[in-house]
Amino acid sequence: MTTIVRHSRTEDETHRLAGDLARVLKPGDAVLIDGELGAGKTTLIRSIVAALGHDASAVSSPTFVLAHEYRAPGRPTVAHIDAYRMHGTEDAGVLGLESDAPRIILVEWASRLGLATDSLHSSTARVRMEHAGETSRTVHLDVPNTWLARPALARLGGPTWAVCPITSRAVPPDCPTFPFADERARLADLHGWFTGSYRVSRPLRPDDD
Question: CATH homologous superfamily of domain 2-147?
Answer without folding.
Answer: P-loop containing nucleotide triphosphate hydrolases (3.40.50.300)
